[in-house]
Amino acid sequence: MNIHEYQAKELLKSYGVRIQEGIVADSPESALEAAKGLNEQTGTSWYVIKAQIHAGGRGKGQIKETGSRGVVLAKKQEDVPTKAADILGGTLVTIQTGAEGKKVNKVLIAEDVYYPGASEPKEYYLSILLDRGKGCNVIMASTEGGMDIEEVAEKHPEKIIKEWIDPKFGLQGFQVRKIAFKLGLEGNAFKEMVKFITSLYNAYVGSDSSQFEINPVLKTSDDKILAVDAKVNLDDNALYRHKDLADLRDVAEEDPLEVEAGKSGLNYVKLDGNVGCMVNGAGLAMATMDMIKLSGGEPANFLDVGGGANATTVEAGFRIILQDPNVKAILINVFGGIVRCDRIANGVVEAYRSIGNIPVPIIVRLQGTNAEEGARIIDESGLKVSSAITLKEAAEKVKKALAES
Predict the structure, then answer these.
(1) C or N terminus of the chain, fewer CB within 10 Å?
(2) How far apart, in whole angstroms, are the C-alpha atoms of residue 386 and residue 381?
(3) Residues annotated in a binding site for substrate
(4) Residues at the annotated binding site for Mg(2+)?
(5) Residue 362 within a domain
(6) In total, how many domains does the chain have?
(7) DSSP class of residue 201?
(8) Which domain holds residue 69?
(9) Where is substrate annotated to bind (predicted)?
(10) Active-site residue set
(11) Per-residue pLDDT tens digits for 208-258
(12) Residue that terminates a domain, selected from 198, 227, 246
């Protein structure tokens, strides 16, 4: 589960990680109040106004309606409401959102941390994630902060520092010092980075996260180390242990169909194809999508209704798939193991009749317990539904349905 920057920073702060302070706002008026409060809290007189959406590249992104960037600087407190108004309610297009962009409902009013001092500020990159190949967490760091890290990794892989953490022992002090040393730090900045990384790793483990990305990590002109940005991805499977973190979910940032599917207990991911898929089991769903491609179509979604498929779940799946205007046919591919095929077939018929007229052809492939009985129920239903027994037969019927659409 992704969370917003302002939420991620509060999480980090609770673990002792130094952050760029800020106050969230959802209107020009509240943005001004946030600026006043921030001035009292930190003494800052310049304000960074940052769009809050679940996507990177906000600083280079642009608001469709106003032309404003997703991250702007106000050098006067009285300029904050106007600059916030140029962002709030607009559609921000970044390299990660695609051309459709994302609506901005909130902005973060943050303190200016690039103040003059004894030395020049310096930006670094730092992330923590699970290396599935090695079966342990890895800390990645680079002196090339504030940049597209994928581009750095491709063109200058030697600038990516990696430190793997043995799960038996956890993060060791020498590992943190090694990272700080390789980043070229010394003196108080070195000590600050050691403290920063240690606290950040404690936050990562303590929150059961799957990814932390801090880009940039800033060394200020007076050698403080702090997080200027924060991307945090929480592990959905561990949210039952963190009710407070589960409440941070912003469904407005998620695909509406995926949200609706979740409410019905379905695992759904929207794709760009023309054949809707409804399957019980993730492995079978992947095989079904492969079969659709081999038949000349493109899967429009991943939809796993689970092992206990019934009329209610099938109907919910139908309604979600049919909301995609690109769908020209629907393939239901079910293995009757936990649930008998005849019960699944009856569920399909009931769901079809409950919805009413379904404008696209439906192919139902049933295998397992009572598969023949299930096929008979489908064939004798009198509905615009055809049955298939083998994968090859189902593929041929999908191909025919697409040709006739």
Answers:
(1) C
(2) 10
(3) 280, 337-339
(4) 215, 229
(5) yes
(6) 3
(7) H
(8) 21-111
(9) 280, 337-339
(10) 125, 213
(11) 999 999 999 999 999 999 999 999 999 988 999 999 999 999 988 887 888
(12) 246
